């Protein structure tokens, strides 16, 4: 079994779209692909109960059937920082439960794609961040870089923090967030020069992207085996 943790340089950088497209691409290549969204804040009412939209998208893209509670062990109603939502609800996030859920998913899958929440150092309680979950499992990390002003600093800080924890940056994805960004290509070139991990793909701006169109932008052969 192998897995990847997908993080972003910030919120709203296309992390969910890229993570789900990555699941789709792996599934198209065959094998049993599991998914996980350990922590989510922002719930919608469905016939099955409260669910998170990003977690549902992952669940639908996976090639194996998994209980929602394994995919998304912690879900909070409001779209606020999860550790704050946890404190308000009285249901604190337990790192051991997150790890156990991942291990249960991985037992059923050949590969697992885990989507983070927010950015890399999202707090999950008064001391830990979601990065501690990744460290506990030693998962390689895929970084989604949202191309906008400030992305160079955000990307390099994220990469540095991942590497300082002894983790592998498996690759990164450049995601265009606007129809036209000034010197966008120069920003990408700067990151290619400074990040040793491979650029897995460049996702052009398109408000009508599908999983297939984003998956087509990703080169899975560049990921470490």
From TrEMBL:
Domain of life: Bacteria
Signal peptide: none
Gene Ontology cellular-component terms listed: cytosol
Cofactor(s) listed in the protein's UniProt record: Mg(2+)
GO biological process, one term: biotin biosynthetic process
Pfam families named among the record's database cross-references: AAA_26 (PF13500)
Enzyme nomenclature, EC number: 6.3.3.3
Gene3D superfamilies listed in its UniProt record: P-loop containing nucleotide triphosphate hydrolases
Active site per database record: 37
Keyword annotations of the record: ATP-binding, Biotin biosynthesis, Cytoplasm, Ligase, Magnesium, Metal-binding, Nucleotide-binding
Reaction(s) this enzyme catalyzes, per UniProt: (7R,8S)-7,8-diammoniononanoate + CO2 + ATP = (4R,5S)-dethiobiotin + ADP + phosphate + 3 H(+)
Keyword field contains Protein biosynthesis: no
General function of this protein: Catalyzes a mechanistically unusual reaction, the ATP-dependent insertion of CO2 between the N7 and N8 nitrogen atoms of 7,8-diaminopelargonic acid (DAPA, also called 7,8-diammoniononanoate) to form a ureido ring.
Name of this chain's protein: ATP-dependent dethiobiotin synthetase BioD
Taxonomic source organism: Solemya pervernicosa gill symbiont
């Amino acid at each position: 079994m192998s897995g990847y943790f997908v993080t972003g340089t910030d919120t709203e950088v296309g992390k969910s779209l890229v993570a789900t497209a990555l699941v789709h691409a792996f599934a198209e290549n065959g094998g049993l692909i599991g998914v996980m969204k350990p922590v989510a804040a922002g719930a919608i009412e469905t016939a099955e109960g409260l669910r998170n939209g990003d977690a549902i998208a992952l669940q639908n893209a996976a090639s194996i059937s998994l209980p929602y509670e394994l995919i998304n062990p912690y879900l909070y109603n409001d779209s606020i920082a999860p550790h704050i939502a946890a404190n308000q609800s009285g249901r604190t996030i337990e790192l051991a439960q997150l790890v156990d859920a991942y291990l249960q998913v991985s037992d059923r899958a050949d590969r697992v794609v885990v989507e983070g929440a927010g950015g890399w150092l999202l707090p999950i309680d008064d001391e830990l961040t979601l990065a501690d979950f990744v460290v506990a499992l030693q998962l390689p990390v895929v970084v989604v870089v949202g191309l906008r002003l400030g992305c160079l600093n955000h990307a390099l800080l994220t990469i540095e923090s991942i590497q300082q924890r002894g983790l592998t940056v498996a690759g990164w994805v450049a995601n265009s967030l606007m129809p036209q960004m000034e010197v966008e290509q120069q920003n990408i070139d700067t990151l290619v020069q400074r990040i040793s991990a491979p650029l897995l793909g460049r996702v052009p701006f398109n408000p009508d992207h599908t999983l297939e169109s984003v998956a087509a932008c990703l080169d899975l052969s560049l990921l470490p085996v």
